[in-house]
Amino acid sequence: MASPAKQRRELKLKANYLLAYNTLSSALWAVVLVRTILTNIREGPEKVYGAVGDYTKWTQTVAAMEIVHALVGMVRTPLTTTVVQVASRLNLVWPILHLCPESMRTSPAYTTMLLAWSITEVIRYTYYARNLQGEPPAWLTTLRYNTFFVLYPVGISSEAWEIYGSLGELEGVSGLVAVVEKVVLYGIYVPGAYVMYTHMMHQRRKVMRGKKPMRN
């Protein structure tokens, strides 16, 4: 068994690593958010992928570390939930948007998807970073556990549209990939949307219940 001093050092090292990871991730997604907004305003949604597509691809790939964090017990996030969330996005930024027709890269759904992702992640990672430093401010907690009411439906519907719109082109590229994406869309996204939404509702109730003022 490790000595108390060694345990404290390990806990501090883990906390410092997670603080750095969450701070960096928040900054990366903030860049996605700003670039997406500015490009959409100045040039329109059809130019968003060219401006931020590759950057978003690698920013989302960094998030695969969250699977490792959950797997080794570094965080208490359920492994299954983490895998579903990360894998679904990696599926979008790699096989779908890498192989899909230009029309899906220039679709307004791509822009709404990035807006939903980036706003969510800036809030989420900032919340995690502040939580490692102490009690997060009330406004940040409110954003963390309430914005999903709007952002989750926008995000997942945009993702589903991107997959659906790419199926025809994918069949011409690889029949196997097209079949896999149909399974993902109809077999995972539809039931998975309900599971993830109810999971977030449960998390919200648990956290917000603890924020209610005590009655005399």
From TrEMBL:
Localization in the cell: Endoplasmic reticulum membrane; Membrane
Catalytic activity reported: a very-long-chain (3R)-3-hydroxyacyl-CoA = a very-long-chain (2E)-enoyl-CoA + H2O
Membrane topology value: Multi-pass membrane protein
Domain of life of the source: Eukaryota
Major localization listed first in the record, in broad terms: endoplasmic reticulum
Pfam name, any one: PTPLA
Keywords assigned: Endoplasmic reticulum, Fatty acid biosynthesis, Fatty acid metabolism, Lipid biosynthesis, Lipid metabolism, Lyase, Membrane, Transmembrane, Transmembrane helix
Transmembrane segments: 18-38, 183-202
Enzyme Commission numbers on file: 4.2.1.134
InterPro entries (alphabetical): Tyr_Pase-like_PTPLA
Leader sequence segment: none
GO cellular component, as recorded: endoplasmic reticulum membrane
The protein's enzyme class: lyase
GO biological process: fatty acid elongation; sphingolipid biosynthetic process; very long-chain fatty acid biosynthetic process
Gene Ontology terms for molecular function: very-long-chain (3R)-3-hydroxyacyl-CoA dehydratase activity
Annotated pathway: Lipid metabolism; fatty acid biosynthesis
Entry's family note: Belongs to the very long-chain fatty acids dehydratase HACD family.
Record function comment: Catalyzes the third of the four reactions of the long-chain fatty acids elongation cycle. This endoplasmic reticulum-bound enzymatic process, allows the addition of two carbons to the chain of long- and very long-chain fatty acids/VLCFAs per cycle. This enzyme catalyzes the dehydration of the 3-hydroxyacyl-CoA intermediate into trans-2,3-enoyl-CoA, within each cycle of fatty acid elongation. Thereby, it participates to the production of VLCFAs of different chain lengths that are involved in multiple biological processes as precursors of membrane lipids and lipid mediators.
Official protein name in the record: Very-long-chain (3R)-3-hydroxyacyl-CoA dehydratase
Species of provenance: Arthrobotrys flagrans (Nematode-trapping fungus)
